[in-house]
# Entry
Amino acid sequence: MASATARAHPNIAFIKYWGNQDSSLRIPVNSSLSMNLDGLFTETTVEWNPQFVSDVVEINHQPASDLASRRVIQHLNQIRQRYSVTDFAQVRSSNNFPMGAGIASSASSFAALTLAATKAAGLDLPERELSSIARLGSGSASRSIPSGFVEWHAGYDHESSYAESFALSDHWNLVDVVAVVSQSHKTTGSTEGHQSAETSDLQSARVAGAEDRLKACKSAILDRDFTTFAEVVERDSNLMHAVMMTSRPPLFYWLPTSLVIMQKVREWRDSGLHVCYTLDAGPNVHCLCLLPDSAQVAAALKSIDGVSEVRIAAAGAGAHLIS
Ligand code: DP6
# Structure
């Protein structure tokens, strides 16, 4: 088969990936935990063809920007080198969520690209290997290969750094209610951010405690213990943002509305709702809650000034082929 189509979901990290031991291989300084986001996905078709004279990349039915094309072609080069593929490829990728909605698409994009490109090349790679290959394109993409609740083992080299599922998506009725916070300027992307993490005096302290937080978070998920989960998820997000804010140059991803939402979430939790927050490299607030409380959380978020949109996603599947 010279062509294949794959679908992958983005993921939200509960214990964050921030900083690499090896930035060219994207070997992170700490292991991380996440959940795939159902309902949101990237679908990618890859065709390898001996008659193509170059790689062609299309995203959302348009020729990709130079920057995006370069990153995709770099990933195709990795696959060509590692598996002795000699053809050029046509890559057609689309997201069912708007790029401007502030939901990071690199995880779902590189997970779908990895599965489609290797399958189209006639390879049938085990999940662990797919995850390591996806990691080379975008670190968090390693976590979009396995299904449901996922742990990315930091490891120390290409083979030992991969993600695997530790609970299926129906294990817990956890829901991510994403408050999209309007944003007028472009912020520093994660790839650049990872490189500046070690310039913060706080990064070593964050990394030193990461394994303990990961263990506490994983046990809380396995025990469906929301109280412990909420405390450790918020602490881990705050620690990552403390590192960001104290890096040189400093990175401030929160907007005033982000902070308003974080304060509200804590008030709502004190009043009995099962909800906590986490933020990635942007101002959107991911409000993690139990399904029975999600409608109330979504309605309350919509009424906050500065929230442009609210998206709801439950735990989702891993990357899979659709043709
Ligand atoms: C803040 O995976 O987007 O979302 O490897 O450079 O593509 P690259 O970075 P990326 O970093 C994600 C950072 C984060 C935290 C997380 O998802 O763990």
In short: Residues 13, 16-18, 26, 32, 104, 106, 138-140, 190-191, 194, 280-281 surround DP6 (CB under 6 Å).
